[in-house]
Amino acid sequence: MTNFENFFEIQITLKALKLKFTYRYLIVCLIVSSILMSCNPTRKLKDGEYLLNKNIVIDKNTKIDKHDIESYIKQKPNRKILVLFRFHLWLHNLVHEDRLKRKRIYQNKKNELKNKSRIANGKEIKIYNRQLLGEWLLDIGEMPVIYDSLVAKKSSTQIKLLLNNKGYFISSVSDSVHLSKRKTATVYYKIKASKPYLINQIEYKIPDNLLGYFVFGDTSKSLIIRGNNYDEDVLQKERERITRELNNNGYYLFSKDYIHYEIDTTIGNRKVNVTLNIKNFASKSIESADSIVETHHQRFYINNIYIQPDFISKIMNSEKMDTIKINDYTIIHNQKLGYKTKILLDAIFIRKGELYQLSNIEDTYLRLSELKTFKSINIFFTPNRSGYLDCNIQLSPIFKQSLTVETEGTNTSGNLGIGGSVVYQNRNLFKGSEIFELRLKGSVEAQKTIYNSTDVNPVKQFNTVEFGPELNIYTPRFLIPFNVRTSKISNPKTIFTSSVIYQRRQDYTRYISNLSFGYTWKETAKIRHTINPLIISFVKVSLRPDFYSKLIENEHNLYILNSFSNHLSTSTRYTYTYNEQDIKKTGNFSFFKLNAESSGNILRGIYNTVNTILPNTFTKDQLGRYKIIDIVYSQYIRIDVDYRYYFTVNDINKLAFRLAAGIGKPFVNFQSLTFERSFYSGGSNGIRAWQSRSLGPGSYSNEGPYIFDQFGDGQLEGNFEYRFKLIKFLNGAFFVDAGNTWLRQPDTNRPGGDFQYNRFYKEIAVGSGLGLRADFDFFIIRFDIGIKIRDPQFQENKRWTIQHILDNNWKNDFYMSHSGHKYNFFTFNIGIGYPF
Questions:
Q1: Residue 708: pLDDT band by 50, 70, 90 thresholds?
Q2: What is the pLDDT of residue 528?
Q3: Given the DSSP bridges, would you call strands 271-278 and 259-264 parallel, antiparallel or unpaired?
Q4: Window from 314-328, 726-740, 811-825 with minimum mean pLDDT
Q5: Other CB atoms within 10 A of residue 486 CB
Q6: Among 769, 786, 762, which residue's Cα sits nearest to residue 694?
Q7: Residue 205: other Cβ atoms inside 10 A
Q8: Strand, helix or coil at 215?
Q9: Are 157 and 180 in contact (CB under 8 A)?
Q10: What is the CB neighbour count within 10 angstroms for residue 349?
């Protein structure tokens, strides 16, 4: 049941139950629910048909991964979600197919009558292709997989082929089936194999001596190793490795088809000799088209290099062209050249006179695409018999300027609103592939006021207005006063960012200004570094009188005072990112990110040094703080880490894990972390059973009449999410979140909020829930229902929320009373994209 508190705060709560909860009643409910969800997946099967329940591979003799073996089984059970539930089969079984056929016949006749009427009225025939509900369910559902003994036999044969490929030549595979009374079939594939054949000797037959020189010179990297198991997959990978190595040494026309193997298994003692043959280059004879001439493979050198940065099509580019000759490059263009030649040439790693190298072509593709100014890139070569290649690089530019209007629904820390922006982009501002982006943003949002409000007018609940410009400039190189050598994959960028945001709400008005610049580059394909030497953030706050009086009452609380006071931050930030994800492949990968930040420490050191040399140059306020333009600047160090691991179970089931931690330490010039750089828990991307900034710190529970956002000096959080596909664009998720924030030092106004080794683990909040994700490829809308499982704000022996349910501690007005506040076990979150 949904309760909209003050229109904008979406909370899902349970209505009070008159029945007394007991453990027995809960167990009965769980059993009944599981039976209802499972249904009977075999109810539509005919006599003699059995639903394939499971394939079990019995393998005690080989070291082959069972997932590899199972991939050769041709008949697989219906897919499951949540481990047990065959959701797609259940959808299929909802349909009574005979009734559906009759409905379709009736609908077709009805459509025919409509078209006859249209023809009679002189109208065109209309094509009716709307699906019936049953047809739609059959389309997204999955037919039952019925056990087929013939397919099982074929699967055994395929597994035997796999064993042969892996060197288990003396082996057998048998299949058997167990048919249950519930009309399900479990198929067993039993593997009996002797020890595998091992590689005894490796020989090479290469008639081309020069080509052989490169192959023999690289045998230390060979994947075929004496003493290893014979494995055809390894032999195939070795073909690909040698081909790539030769492609990087000038052999432009060489392909893996020239490599083949001879395998001798007759030497005995379960050993094989492997002979690797590389054939000569074959081409048609000039004298006779029916004959083939074999020659040594030719190495090619790069000759002319032509670059066309405004290529549209062959027809349109057949007009008269202008050319620019720069060193060994010829730039061809139809119109005025719109790019700095240095930017183009710095992105091209193909050099005249050098041997053809496949890696240089790949690096050129990558660097040109990273400029973000070309919609298509085409590199091709024209060989000649003298051993030279002419290189042609065709670049099709995207539109230089664009103006877009964006609208969005917002969910900031659990507060709903609507927003929009006008975005102007220039993708080649100074002819150096710079991206200039000017964005004017505005939004209205419904937020809780700090003081209690009795006004329930839904329009007035949208009490936060925010708008302002944001300017970003991305330059594809380092803008520094000295030269820095970069690698082919480094992709250096200099980024300038600035914004001014005006924010008005009933409690206060804020002006937030930000200015920063930084550098980012890749160390390897997986490692990226980002450093921002200077980030300036200025917050100016104007408070309404009644809100100011409430802050004065809490003046001893530094977090609250600093959250709503003018302050300035001048920080330096470094980010290290390690990402194993390959967007071209699906598989398991990990992600790690580290942020380290320092603010105000250099300034404080300079002020102290100057005052030591020239006393009283800079004055301090009564709290011992220095100021800039009469504003106190923050001083702190902060570090946080974020580790994630993504595991693919199969095509519809995935697991995602996340562990995040962070800590910050303020210093004398500003004795607490700023509002923006403090740690908090809860929200749509955190512990989803709590609203953002409503959890912690520690076991503290805000029992006063005014609820302030909760922050801490450190954070520990872990998340687990099981993701599964439902229908087409709609996916589901089950998640568990755990964590909290803590203070570094005890605070008498927030008892239990400080971190202590002997009790912090007892203050871990736990939430769980279910979610839906509407995946539209270009963006994802996420709906999550979080359920509080363990809440550290209660007494230590009463932190499992199930205890309060079982104790009947409920009210009839949809919430449980706790310290005079509404307590909701359920929280509804809306988010954009995945939480992690």
A1: low
A2: 95
A3: antiparallel
A4: 811-825
A5: 14
A6: 786
A7: 12
A8: helix
A9: no
A10: 18
Distance in angstroms (rounded) separating the CA atoms of residues 797 and 819: 17
Query: Residue with structure tokens 């102007």?
Result: 424
**Backbone dihedral angles phi then psi of residue 326, each to the nearest 5 degrees:** -125, 110
3-state secondary structure 749-795: CCCCCECCCCCHHHHCEEEEEEEEEEECCCCEEEEEEEEEEECCCCC
Instruction: State the pLDDT at residue 455.
Output: 47
Of the candidate ranges 94-98, 423-427, 675-679, 704-708, the one whose mean pLDDT is the lowest: 704-708
Q: Give the helix ranges, DSSP H, for 593-721.
A: 601-613
**3-state secondary structure (DSSP) of residue 135:** helix
| Residue range 631-668, pLDDT digits in tens | 888 899 999 999 999 998 888 889 999 999 999 999 98
> Which residue in this structure is represented by tokens 């052999």?
251
The sign of the torsion formed by the CA atoms of 813, 814, 817, 822 equals negative
Alpha helices (H) in 7-51, listed in sequence order = 23-38
8 Å CB contact between 710 and 696:
yes
Can you point out the beta strands (E) in 251-297? Answer: 259-264, 271-278, 281-284, 292-295
Residue 517 scores a pLDDT above 70? yes
Consecutive H or E run containing 234: helix 232-247
Q: How confident is the model at residue 812 (pLDDT cuts 50, 70, 90)?
A: very low
The rounded distance, in Å, linking the Cα atoms of 641 and 594 is 5
- Identify the bridge partners of residue 721 per DSSP, sorted by sequence position: 656, 735
Distance CA 310, CA 335 (A): 8
8 A C-beta contact, residue 178 and residue 209: no
Residues 313-347: pLDDT tens digits?
Answer: 765 555 567 888 998 999 998 888 888 888 899 89
Quote the Cα angle for 547-548-551, to 5°: 90
- pLDDT given for residue 287 in this prediction: 59
- Whether 348 has a pLDDT exceeding 90, the answer reads yes
Which residues lie below 8 Å from residue 215, measured CB to CB, with a gap of 6+? Answer: 204, 206, 242, 245, 246, 278
3-state secondary structure of 446: coil
In tens, the pLDDT along 431-446 reads 888 999 999 988 776 6
What is the C-alpha to C-alpha distance for residues 301 and 442, in angstroms, rounded to an integer? Answer: 57
What rounded mean pLDDT belongs to the chain?
Answer: 83
Sign of CA dihedral 160, 161, 163, 164: positive
Contacts of residue 617, Cβ cutoff 8 Å, sequence gap at least 6:
610, 611
Terminal-residue alpha carbon distance, the chain = 28
Q: Quick one: which H or E segment has residue 390?
A: strand 388-397
- Give the residue ranges of DSSP H helices in 539-626: 545-553, 558-563, 601-613
What backbone phi and psi angles, to 5 degrees, belong to 104? -65, -40
463 residue type, one letter: N
Residue with tokens 């013939």: 150
Contact criterion met (CB below 8 Å) for 379 and 364: yes
pLDDT at 705 over 50: no
pLDDT at 417 (0 to 100): 62
* Cα–Cα distances in angstroms (integers) from residue 570 to residues 32, 154, 555, 597, in the given order: 60, 69, 25, 10
**C-alpha to C-alpha distance for 67 and 587, rounded to whole angstroms:** 13
Residue 638 Cα distances to 573, 606, 671, 836, angstroms: 9, 20, 13, 21
Distance CA 45, CA 109 (A): 31
The residue type found at 38 is S
pLDDT at 182 over 50: yes
What local confidence, expressed as pLDDT, does residue 368 receive? Answer: 92
For 321-367, give the secondary structure using H, E and C. CEEEEECCEEEEECCCCCCCHHHHHHCCCCCCCCECCHHHHHHHHHH
With H, G, I as helix, E, B as strand and everything else as coil, classify residue 317. Answer: helix
